[in-house]
Amino acid sequence: MKNLISGFLMALLGATVSLGIYKYIEPKIVILPNEKEQAKATSVNYVRAEPTLGVDYTTAAELTVNGVVHVKTEGTVEYNQRGFDPFKELLYGNGNYNQKYIQPVKGAGSGVIISPDGYIVTNNHVIEKADQIKITLNNKKTYDAKVIGTDPTTDLALLKIEEDGLPYVSYGNSDQIRVGEWVLAVGNPFNLTSTVTAGIVSAKGRDIDILSNDPFTGNSSIESFIQTDAAVNPGNSGGALVNTKGELIGINAAIKSNTGSFTGYSFAIPSNIVKKVVRDLKEFGNVQRAFIGVQIRNIDEELAKENNIDDFNGIYVTELIENGSAKEAGIIKGDIIKEVEGVKVNSATELQAKVGEYRPGDRISIKLVRNGKSIEKEVLLKNMEGNTAIISNSDNQLMKALGAKFSELDDELKDALDLDGGAQVESLFSGKFKNAGIKEGFIITKVDKTSIKNPEILLNLLSQKKDEGILIQGLYPNGQEAYYGVGM
């Protein structure tokens, strides 16, 4: 009996020790609290991949998917094929050929409804080669769309369908977004309609050098993209980037990839630029670009050492344009621009994008530092021509059709050629003038016996010659006279 009791006590002691060891080494289980139990829970912060608890991303997605449309395009591309045919060489003694082909092309992308009466914003590159544009809503209804206007310098286009009471996406303020903020991308990648992906804002003010300047207006491209890691693929172009409230903060435009598919980087045009471009296209048919009239440079270590600059934030003014807005406002070379309308600017792209939100004739507040002191200046913005006038879309379209940009003659050239005026062909592109044989530098002095004193008179006259043939008379800078017939 004594041995039995001793054995029992030894077993009980072993079990107690084993249980103690297990309790000491067992893994701790932390249960994430729900909203009702959150007040009772211990405050522990984890690094995690999911968005903050309590934010309703389903509502943001539902507010957006019905306002994002599927854009399908059809058009044609004309190209030349040059080659050598040995059989033609054998038969005719000339085997060289230059064959013109017209190839049909189809495209697809996304668009965002921005008002209930059928205005839709998308990328210019989605519709630029289109002869026909079809819009399909999330409810599967399809409409023909017309182009209200395009702006290649921001890669934006405004479309219109004839419908009312449409669901639309409201604008947010892209200046207020922060790096690390959660966003949703909504579009139609690979024809998978109404696809929603999530990510964070990875960076702001990115310049990825994909847009070209407009040779006709002289407008430079604006690249100040929002970079995100939300998955974006071909077909997402023109779709919405929204914040967690479902507000439009960008139009998805590009990805950075070696494969053509998403590899972690996507780029969107900020909504504040979109809003301004859309407003201009609706009112004028083209974008009214504003300039402050400065040449600028990002502050780097070399520039800071040369000019004893301690703070690398801001943009350094290297030169001022004569009669430009900045010079008239009292800004001088060496000033460091810190803020535009209360928004900090730390790169040339950020400054360009912020100024690009305004029109010629607008007044903006610019904060700058001069010799260590903070100064505020009010600047009256001007257009590329140095005034505050609205630039006509008809002139812009006419120059594109002609394929030419014009300039006034300087006094030296007038004296050398004994002219009292004229319109000189400054640049030539594909168009009617190049097809007629006109070359750069040609000075137009008469059109159908009407004297031409300057480019404005030329454009006014040509705009009245629609569907007519005209005779252009002039000379080249070497004095050689020439005549050209051009069909308008």
Give an account of the 3D structure.
With 488 residues, the protein is an alpha+beta fold. It folds into 3 domains: 57-287, Thrombin, subunit H (Beta Barrel); 294-380, PDZ domain (Pdz3 Domain), CATH 2.30.42.10; 393-487, Roll (Pdz3 Domain), CATH 2.30.42.10. Helix content is 22%, strand content 33%. It has helices spanning 2-25, 57-65, 86-92, 124-127, 271-284, 301-306, 325-329, 348-355, 393-402, 411-417, 432-436, 455-462, and strands at 68-84, 96-113, 119-122, 132-136, 142-144, 146-151, 156-160, 182-187, 195-206, 225-228, 240-242, 248-255, 266-270, 294-298, 315-320, 336-340, 343-344, 363-370, 373-380, 404-408, 423-428, 443-447, 450-451, 469-475, 481-487. The strands form 4 sheets. The chain has a 7-stranded antiparallel β-sheet. A 6-stranded antiparallel β-barrel has the order 8-9-10-13-12-11. Strands 14, 15, 16, 17, 18 and 19 form a 6-stranded antiparallel β-sheet that branches.
Q: In total, how many domains does the architecture comprise?
A: 3
C-alpha Rg, in Å? 32 Å
- Averaged pLDDT: 84
Percent in helix: 10-25%
Q: What is the number of helices? A: 12
Pick out the low-confidence regions. 17-50
Distance from first to last alpha carbon = 123 Å
What's the CATH first level of the largest domain? Mainly Beta
Total DSSP E strands: 25
Shape: globular
- Briefly note the CATH topology name of the largest domain: Thrombin, subunit H
- What percentage of the residues does DSSP assign to strands (E)? 25-35%
The strand order across the widest sheet is: 5-4-1-2-3-7-6
- Examine the secondary-structure arrangement and name the CATH architecture of the largest domain: Beta Barrel
Structural class: alpha+beta
Q: For the report, how would you describe the main beta sheet?
A: 7 strands, antiparallel
